[in-house]
Amino acid sequence: MVADDDQGRPVEPVPQSHSGVVGRHTPHTGTEPRTARSPLRLRLLLSGIFLPLFVAAAVLFGVWAGTSGSGDTPSSGALVVLAAVCAALALLAAVDLLVARRRRTARRP
After folding, report:
1. With left for phi above 0 and alpha for psi between -120 and 50, is residue 10 left, alpha or beta?
2. Which helix (H) or strand (E) holds 2?
3. Cα separation of 56 and 90, whole Å?
4. Rounded to two decimals, what is the model's pTM?
5. Buried (b) or exposed (e) across 17-34, using 16+ Cβ within 10 A?
6. I need a surface site. Which of 48, 80, 84, 105 has the fewest CB within 10 A?
7. CA 29/CA 95 separation, integer angstroms
8. Per-residue pLDDT tens over the stretch 11-22
9. Do 66 and 75 meet the contact criterion of CB atoms below 8 Å apart?
10. Is there a contact between 18 and 25 (Cβ–Cβ < 8 Å)?
11. From CA 107, how far away is CA 109, in angstroms rounded?
């Protein structure tokens, strides 16, 4: 469907690749693979730092939840939730560490 502008002239629709839609891809010039910089080293560093921290936090919150009483603050339920969140983040860091290592070794000739 062709719309009309203010003066009645037909206006061609804007292609979706130029419409500002989120997630659109710009055309490649062909130099990207040679000039692209990979964040794998940073991902390895951050995953290596945060994996043991999240594991330690999950263990700490789990032990704290196990030893807390019914009237303690924070409650054992809140501590269990914190332990679960830390365990999930540790799992995410471990998976990212494995993926980054695999991609880094696959890039080497």
Report:
1. beta
2. none
3. 9
4. 0.65
5. eeeeeeeeeeeeeeeeee
6. 105
7. 33
8. 666 555 555 555
9. no
10. no
11. 6
